[in-house]
């Protein structure tokens, strides 16, 4: 079931992923270093709002709705009421603070950023609802319908005005179009209703530690851009963002797809079959997560020269390329930490432990950035991120074993390192071919993907052998019948 769900979500998020790559290629060619740096800083700020103000509510929806799947209004009505309340309070507070403290060159962009933060949070809530209800088709439509108009409008505006406002307005428009086209049906008959005191207490015990946790996660993930802007300027922030986003929008997207399918599945297994069955499902999930994280990072590192030439503007390439290896490894560690080890705390509702692991990572990242960025530039920020997330992953694994019967790490590492070696070797070999860059990248991805699938079959990663055998048998029967 896991592999089948992952395949469905792979198609559901495939088009948006391609569009995001095209957006990186377009904006690094149409915007200057400074404007792309401002755009990146706004996205980082919107991310902070998302994780501090809204993300805990999304996770409350994802954790509590499966238990009320036959009567979703029990959870959705209070969730909607809380979302509207948070949106109003955030908008008023953000505008008031920005009016006083924002620098003159930033004042025109603040209202756009506020609207983007709210529309993005609403879009993410609708995506979470689709995953909880195991509706990958609606998930895919929401993602695709947002991504395409966001890029089209953003690119046109960027071509005309060459301003950081352009991609932000595109993102707002895309989210609104997606809601009107594919999101409204899920909320039919749902009206906001204040939660009961018992429900609010239950939501708070689970969600409020997560709000603090996600603030710490943001410090680890995005404070580097603010510190680069402080020490080195907005132009260097744009260069760093180009390299960082290249890894996160490829490997990060792939691992998010796996998590989108895997986490709701293991929560349902826990609710219906108990802890032992959920432990078995976590073992399967972990094999796939480790395999894709390490083999994906290895493949990206091998094909990086061609990817940079195709998807990053020439003015950004040298700097972005200098940090790509470290960011690709960081993306793999982030995925394993967030989408495997941390799941133990969500399953047991012991979200307070996330404060410990995220706090360690945030403290390490801030301290290392303060030392590394002034001396080593954007490379220092990349090293800080890798070290900080490694600390977080190890601490999450150690504590996670104490609260939930998580699978042993060594077998998972085998499922990660063996295909990674095969992927890197095959992709590197294909990169030596004397053909056009586009065909070289396509050849490398195809061959490395085939090698990875063969290794997955040999290792029986996430039970893929049984799935392949079942579908192979059906195909054989159909051929015989014909």
Helix content: over 70%
Main sheet record: none
Give the CA-CA distance, first to last residue.
28 Å
Mean pLDDT: 86
**How many domains?**
1
Number of contiguous helices: 16
Q: Give the helices and strands as they follow along the chain.
A: HHHHHHHHHHHHHHHH
Low-confidence stretches: 475-480
Beta-strand content bin: under 5%
Compute the gyration radius: what is it? 22 Å
| Class derived from helix and strand content | mainly alpha
Shape: globular
Task: Count the E strands.
Answer: 0
Question: What does the model show?
Answer:
- The protein has 482 residues and is mostly helical.
- The chain has one domain (2-478).
- 87% of the residues lie in helices and 0% in strands.
- The protein is built from 16 helices and no strands.
- The protein has helices at residues 2-30, 33-64, 73-101, 110-132, 136-161, 165-183, 197-232, 234-273, 275-311, 314-341, 343-347, 352-376, 378-403, 409-431, 437-459, 464-481.
- Helix 7 packs antiparallel against helix 8 (234-273) and helix 12 packs antiparallel against helix 13 (378-403).
- It is globular and about 60 Å long.
- Mean pLDDT is 86; it is low at 475-480.
């Amino acid at each position: 079931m896991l592999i089948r769900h992952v395949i469905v979500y792979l198609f559901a998020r495939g088009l948006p992923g391609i569009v995001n790559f095209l957006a990186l290629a377009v904006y690094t060619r149409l915007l200057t270093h400074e404007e792309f740096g401002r755009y990146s800083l706004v996205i980082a700020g919107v991310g902070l709002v998302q994780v501090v103000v809204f993300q805990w509510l999304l996770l409350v929806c994802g954790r509590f709705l499966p238990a009320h799947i036959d009567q979703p209004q029990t959870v959705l009505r209070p969730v909607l009421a809380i979302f509207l309340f948070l949106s109003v309070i955030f908008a008023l507070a953000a505008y008031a603070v920005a009016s006083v403290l924002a620098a003159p060159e930033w004042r025109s962009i603040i209202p756009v950023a506020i609207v983007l933060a709210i529309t993005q949070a609403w879009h993410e809530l609708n995506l979470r609802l689709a995953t909880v209800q195991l509706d990958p088709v609606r998930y895919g439509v929401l993602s695709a319908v947002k991504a395409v108009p966001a890029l089209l409008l953003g690119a046109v505006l960027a071509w005309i005005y060459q301003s950081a406002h352009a991609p932000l307005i595109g993102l707002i428009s895309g989210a609104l179009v997606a809601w009107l086209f594919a999101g409204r049906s899920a909320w039919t008959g749902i009206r906001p209703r204040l939660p009961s005191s018992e429900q609010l207490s239950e939501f708070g015990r689970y969600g409020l530690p997560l709000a603090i946790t996600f603030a710490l996660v943001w410090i680890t993930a995005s404070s580097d851009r603010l510190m680069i802007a402080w020490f080195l300027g907005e132009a260097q922030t744009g260069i760093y963002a180009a390299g960082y986003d290249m890894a996160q929008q490829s490997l990060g997207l792939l691992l998010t797809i796996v998590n989108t399918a895997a986490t709701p599945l293991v929560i349902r297994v826990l609710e219906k079959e108990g802890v032992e069955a959920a432990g078995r499902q976590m073992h399967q999930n972990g094999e796939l997560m480790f395999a894709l994280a390490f083999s994906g990072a290895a493949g990206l590192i091998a094909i990086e020269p061609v990817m940079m030439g195709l998807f990053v503007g020439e003015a950004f390439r040298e700097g972005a390329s200098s940090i790509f290896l470290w960011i690709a490894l960081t993306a793999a560690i982030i995925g394993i930490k967030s989408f495997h080890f941390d799941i133990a705390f969500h399953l047991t509702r012991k979200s307070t432990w996330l404060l410990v692991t995220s706090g360690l990572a945030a403290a390490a990242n801030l301290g290392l950035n303060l030392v590394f960025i002034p001396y080593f530039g954007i490379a220092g920020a990349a090293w800080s991120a890798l070290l900080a997330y490694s600390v977080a992953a190890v601490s999450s694994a150690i504590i996670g074993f104490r609260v939930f019967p998580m699978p042993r790490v060594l077998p998972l590492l085998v499922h990660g390192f063996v295909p990674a070696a095969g992927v890197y070797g095959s992709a590197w070999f294909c990169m030596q071919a004397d053909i056009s860059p586009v065909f070289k990248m396509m050849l490398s991805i195809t061959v490395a993907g085939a090698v990875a699938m063969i290794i997955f079959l040999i290792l029986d990663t996430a039970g893929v052998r049984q799935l392949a055998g079942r579908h192979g048998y059906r195909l054989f029967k159909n051929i015989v019948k014909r």
